[in-house]
User: What shape does this take?
Amino acid sequence: MTIGIVALLLTDAAGLAIPWALKSVIDSLSSKPQTGALLSMAGLIFFLSCIQAASRFGWRKCLFGPARLIERDLLNHLFRHFLSLDTPFYQTHSVGDMMSRATNDLRAVREFVGLGLLIWVDAVVVIVSALGLMFWIHPVVTFWVLLPLPIVSLLFFNFIKKIGEGHAAVQVHLSKITSQVQENVAGIRTLHTFVQEEHQKKLFDKLNREYIDKNLRVAKLYGIFSPSYIFTLGISALVSLWIGGNATLAGEMTLGEFVAFNGYLLMLSWPMMGLGYVINLGQKGRVAMGRLLEILNAEPLVNDSLVQNDRNFLIRGSVAFKSVTFSYPNANKTSLNDVDLLIPKGQRLGIVGRVGAGKTSLINLILRLYDPESGVVEIDGLPINQIPLDVLRKNVVRVEQEPFLFSMSIRDNIALGDSSADDSQILSVVHSAGLQDDIERLPNGLDTLIGERGVSLSGGQKQRVALARALLAGPKVLILDDAFSALDGDTESQVLTEILSRLDNVTLILVTQKLQTARKMDFIVFMEDGRILEQGTHNELMQTNGKYAHTYRNQELAMDMEITLQ
Assistant: This one.
């Protein structure tokens, strides 16, 4: 970019030299110069024009090129930062807003860095140099010519703040539009199901009209601001013709000086217009960079700041909760209250309870998606915040009720857990997840593309692909968070039996509302209102005749009634 600025300065220097050369030519005409002298002057002007052309190419290449590279580096940096941010951040920022900042805002920054920097340097150099040469030619005429220019300063300070506020409103509103488009496309099947297409069209049309209105407000401000520059310069040109013309007639200026003076005055028109444009770009870029910095300055609440162990730390699989209390950010209710729980290595634990009992909150703390308010979560006797996050999450894997699948093949989705896995390993976990028959029915088997979020698969197939992915990762702690909710009873029983036979010496935590499934675990925890209400084996809990036993009998009765009705 330094080379580009030097080339720009060379362009301006050549441009400023041309009126001065014309001055010399015109003034020499009075002495009837030889043809050779005129050709020499013409050659000089041609040479200056060639310098302008070459250096103009240089600054375009060396200023606009780096601006694109800066955009690339910023986008890479922003994407890396997106991946480093944690769950609490994404709960308060929409995907559409993040997309808008990574595209529209980044483009505004790039335009200012490239075009804005160019215009700013060019305008300052040309204005200062042209005014200096005008003073050199005739200070008094220059004074009168500059007299209208303070109007420009008044316009500048009056409009600059309003233009900046207008651009901020436009960028924020553009994020809203991007968010609506993203949500509508992601939820297109739901919109079709509830026949909401027309309603969403009206909402989008309203947002779009508001966006146009906000843009027009900025355009009107800029539309008043920029022509005012030109009008002011027109007055200056009128003053120059009148006072400068009289000075030439009076012999105070030569005809060549008069031509050069007006040449420099005309050269001020582009920088003056450019200043208006660069102010517009600058305000837009400043707002955009501020929005990017909001993201880049955001720090994850969960980080490795207390980590004392290296990446070679080995997790064996025991988990302990010691007096743990936790509530989600900005939540009015405590999700976990003084929870104590020990899960030995290799144990198969079932966690049951009603919706909102705190089961998922317990799991989130094991994965360290959040940190507890008080108490401590330990793995293998070590506080979880002292274990590197990448080590923790490679060894503690969760399969969710609604797993996320990427828009690639089934093979690639499964291999996400271990990219080095061969076909035999993938087929092994496919068999354990009960997915083999489904794969055989698909047109391209494991290489079948499943679309965005696995749109071409059923809910049960998605869950089993996610389960195969988790098994391939080879975790020390496997968490099944209602991971069989989309499976029928027979398939669930078959898959769970296969998993239990496969997971030797691996800690298994099964979160479910189906107590028939939970009874197959070594130990069961029944939760209610963020507390562990009952715990023990299935037989022990049935003998205590508490809430677990009551819920189990109700579920058995419901199943019997369903079978009878069938």
The first strand starts at residue 319 and ends at 326.
